[in-house]
Model the fold of this input.
Amino acid sequence: MKTVTVNIVTPDGSVYDSEVTMVIAKTTSGEIGVLAGHIPMVAPLAIGAVKLKKAAGTTEVAAISGGFIEVRPDKISILAPSAEVAASIDIARAKEALARAEGRLQKKQDDIDFKRAELSLNRAMNRINVHEGNI
Ligand code: ATP
Done:
């Protein structure tokens, strides 16, 4: 099966750079599956898991906190504010972030703070799900 290079880049640098046969990502308008040779495309990403299928039949997973996917026939770039492959997720930190966000959501506050807490909760839940393989 044909492969395509996938690079996941954050402001801290590249967190993933490998050949895969398929990428499954959650865009803001739904899940997409991209194979090698796909026509060029750019789409905004939701907070979610990116699944990276390898030629050997294995699948790697990364937690992505939004950003964009840029598809070219021979290369897929994911540019995200933050992203972690499953093995590098600190589960205790994600659980603390989840508890903090839940606490903030229970307090009465303005719309901006509510939205920020909601996004923080989504990032934490996404990391927990990716770490635990619930995707
Ligand atoms: P926290 O409140 O724990 O910082 P956050 O969602 O606000 O979580 P981000 O702003 O998305 O964090 O990310 C800041 C940096 O910390 C990024 O480099 C991100 O990869 C890293 N990071 C955040 N949470 C975790 C985690 N649970 N495990 C590993 N790295 C993490």
